[in-house]
Q: What sequence folds into this?
């Protein structure tokens, strides 16, 4: 069977004037930058160097207020709680702020809710518990911006609540002591795309700089802002925050530090996951480190990940890294079973629908989002996966660019107990009795928005070029575009009329495609197409192909060789 078709979005030619302005750069790099809206030589330079020049941590709305309140707590010895989330962004943000407040001499403790027992975000029982323990200030990270009711509870309990959150605020803002969130309408902070951990870092910068200016006591604070950047890189990449503007600068510096990390926990995690210090990229976070840190909160408790990040010795860290490895395997297995079951149901219902809605007792809450993500990948339709559970059920949604899933849920707000998210992903809780109504209303919304549209995933090509124009020098230049990932994808090339010398299926079920190609100068190239094994048969006898691919280096026998990672192809 041929792999599913992709729509090739070919970039319009870049105006000559733009290219001339960037004539210091490799012409293909210049074209890629122009395609991404960077046409000014100075901006191009800043981008390539990962520079972000706006350097005022007090600029976000309410930041000074939050810093002042925390410094009062530090001065008077009031107990502080840092309240986070159980995913990587949340856990790294908690670790970051606890580390900073402790370094400043604070009486500080972390709080991370349990995914299944408590669920996402602030909850009143937890606030009561914290107040009962004598906490006076609660700082949230990566949550809290929609906690209108809980903010009232905090107020009644005499807690000063400082919210730092990067999620979209709802209609009503919680009445809190301070709310730091660049997405609120009256916040003028120029980078709106910081992750939860990025905002925690801004607060940390504010605290550390205030301390430097006016020390609170006799203690010497040895912790420096830069020591926190590896946490920022982990949380930002794992949360899929766009890797541009300030995030790009933070992640770039954070990756450099992560590659030489002195944190025993990260050293243990990196070693156990089989990564090599010095070769860790944003992809290593996305595919290897992030899933392991996340697995703790998905199948058990996020404290394992937190304790790992905070551990002080290799002896303490190693068993935790081991445990994360085991949790991650468990997570993979549960996800695979869930995907299989969801797929079977979709096939039974008829895969022609415009939206998939599957609910069942066997889907585990910790992985419903992962299952939904896989379904979207496979079928290219919005998907909701719900763990059916007594009176209240919890689910997760993933979507395609053509369908704003959180807006669709907004229309069904009367059926939901709580929900939140963004364009492409959302989480929600509802009374199980409302499941059928929710399903029908969402199907109707999908029908209205998607019927008659061509629903095919798009390959957003950066540049069309003869294969013979690619070489090692270009590959080296391309490294300046790193870190690539969400919001700054690895450049996608199109080459037409490439000579095909061989195409054969590889992989345990022949699911992948191995290619041998040659360019117009008769230089041979290797190509690999993951999931493109279905092309092996129809390519027999084909002489020339058009290829969409990324360029990568493959180590073979200690030698680096360029190869094409082919994303799609057609006979010319
Ligand atoms: Mn987050």
A:
């Amino acid at each position: 069977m041929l792999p599913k078709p992709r729509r090739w979005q070919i970039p319009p030619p870049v105006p000559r004037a733009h290219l001339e302005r960037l004539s210091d750069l490799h012409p293909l790099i210049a074209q890629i930058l122009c395609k991404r809206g960077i046409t000014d030589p100075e901006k191009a330079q800043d981008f390539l160097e990962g520079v972000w020049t706006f350097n005022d941590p007090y600029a976000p709305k309410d930041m000074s207020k939050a810093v002042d309140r925390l410094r009062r707590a530090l001065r008077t010895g009031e107990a502080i709680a840092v309240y986070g989330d159980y995913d990587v962004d949340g856990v790294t943000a908690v670790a970051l702020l606890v580390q900073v407040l402790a370094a400043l001499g604070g009486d500080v403790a972390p709080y991370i809710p349990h995914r299944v027992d408590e669920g996402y975000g602030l909850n009143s029982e937890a606030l009561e518990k914290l107040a009962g323990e004598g906490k006076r200030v609660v700082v949230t990270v990566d949550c809290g911006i929609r906690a209108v009711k809980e903010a009232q509870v905090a107020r009644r309990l005499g807690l000063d609540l400082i919210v730092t959150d990067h999620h979209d605020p709802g209609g009503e803002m919680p009445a809190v002591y301070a709310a730091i969130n660049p997405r609120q309408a009256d916040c003028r902070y120029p980078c709106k795309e910081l992750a939860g951990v990025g905002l925690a870092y801004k607060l940390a910068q504010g605290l550390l700089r205030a301390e430097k200016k006016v020390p609170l006591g006799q203690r010497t604070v040895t912790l420096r802002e830069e020591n926190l950047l590896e946490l920022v890189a982990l949380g930002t990449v794992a949360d899929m925050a766009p890797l541009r503007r300030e995030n790009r600068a933070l992640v770039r510096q954070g990756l450099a530090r992560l590659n030489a990390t002195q944190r025993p926990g990260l050293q243990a995690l990196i070693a156990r996951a089989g990564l090599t210090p010095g070769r860790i990229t944003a992809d290593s976070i996305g595919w290897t480190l992030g899933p392991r840190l996340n697995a703790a909160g998905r199948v058990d408790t996020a404290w394992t990940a937190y304790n790992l990040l905070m551990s002080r010795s290799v002896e303490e860290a190693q068993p935790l890294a081991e445990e994360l490895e085991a949790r991650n395997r468990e997570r993979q297995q549960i996800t695979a079973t869930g995907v299989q079951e969801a797929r079977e149901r979709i096939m039974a219902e008829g895969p022609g629908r415009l939206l998939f809605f599957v609910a069942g007792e066997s889907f585990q809450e910790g992985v419903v989002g992962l299952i939904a993500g896989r379904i979207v990948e496979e079928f290219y339709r919005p998907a909701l996966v719900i763990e059916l559970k007594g009176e209240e059920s919890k689910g997760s949604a993933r979507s395609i660019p053509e369908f704003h899933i959180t807006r669709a849920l907004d229309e069904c707000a009367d059926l939901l107990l709580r929900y939140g998210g963004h364009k492409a992903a959302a989480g929600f809780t509802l009374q199980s009795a409302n499941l059928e109504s929710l399903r029908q209303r969402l199907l109707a919304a999908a029908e209205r928005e998607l019927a008659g549209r061509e629903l095919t995933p798009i390959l957003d090509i950066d540049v069309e070029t003869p294969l013979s124009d690619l070489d090692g020098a270009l590959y080296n230049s391309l490294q300046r575009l790193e870190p690539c990932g969400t919001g700054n994808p690895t450049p996608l090339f199109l080459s037409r009329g490439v000579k095909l010398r061989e195409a054969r299926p590889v992989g345990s079920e022949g699911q992948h495609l191995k290619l041998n190609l040659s360019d117009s100068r008769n230089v041979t190239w290797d190509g690999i197409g993951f999931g493109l094994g279905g092309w092996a048969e129809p390519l027999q006898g084909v002489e020339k192909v058009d290829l969409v691919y990324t360029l990568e280096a493959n180590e073979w026998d200690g030698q680096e060789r360029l190869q094409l990672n082919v994303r799609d192809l057609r006979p010319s």
In short: The first strand starts at residue 7 and ends at 9. The chain has 18 helices and 18 strands.
